[in-house]
Amino acid sequence: MCTTVDGGCDTTAFTPLKCVSLSVEGMPCLALIDSGAQIPVISQDLFEALALKSCGWVDLQGVVGDAVRSPLVKVSMKPRAGSGVDAVKDVSVPCAVAPLLYVNYCVILPTEIGMKFQPVPTVNVASVKSIVGDVKVDVRDDDQNNFCGQT
Fold first, then answer.
1. What is the pLDDT of residue 80?
2. What values do phi and psi take at 78, rounded to 5?
3. Which ranges in the chain are annotated with CATH 2.40.70.10?
4. d(CA 141, CA 143)
């Protein structure tokens, strides 16, 4: 994100863009997860490179301007190897086609679809033992293999 801020503007409300690495019909792509998107979109360049056939039309409405009639295609997507997401099968996704200019991603995904391709965060949970009567608590930190005891 390129940002020029003149005095008095607070930038703490800016949110970094969220992207995931995908394979679309076997081609590696970067996808933007867009919380405001209603339909997935692939770039015109990707559409042409994959020589896809349209299965219909959709009116694509951007944040500003008039709706644009865009081809509708069905593509197969899956997380790229090494992305931290295990996928057994490809996911078939209907997408609008639009020129995505001056960006480094070739797919835009609504949040609900994009979440399928994000790695699940790992959470460390301490194990706790309690003995009835005398209070004894052992806590283990799985990352450090440290034990802290209280009796």
1. 81
2. -155, 160
3. 18-117
4. 6
pLDDT value at residue 14: 79
For residues 59 and 46, is the Cβ–Cβ distance under 8 A? no
Kindly report the CATH number that applies to the domain delimited by 18-117. 2.40.70.10
Structure tokens at 31: 């996808």
Residue 33, classed as helix, strand or coil, is: strand
Residue with tokens 């899956």: 78
Structure token digits, residue 126: 């301490």
Cross-strand pairs, 32: 19, 108
Q: 85-123 pLDDT, tens per residue? A: 665 578 899 999 999 988 899 999 999 888 888 766 656
Are the C-beta atoms of residues 71 and 147 closer than 8 Å to each other? no
**Scanning the structure block, which residue is given the tokens 């008095």?**
8
DSSP 8-state symbol, 81: T
- CA 128, 131, 137, 142 dihedral sign is negative
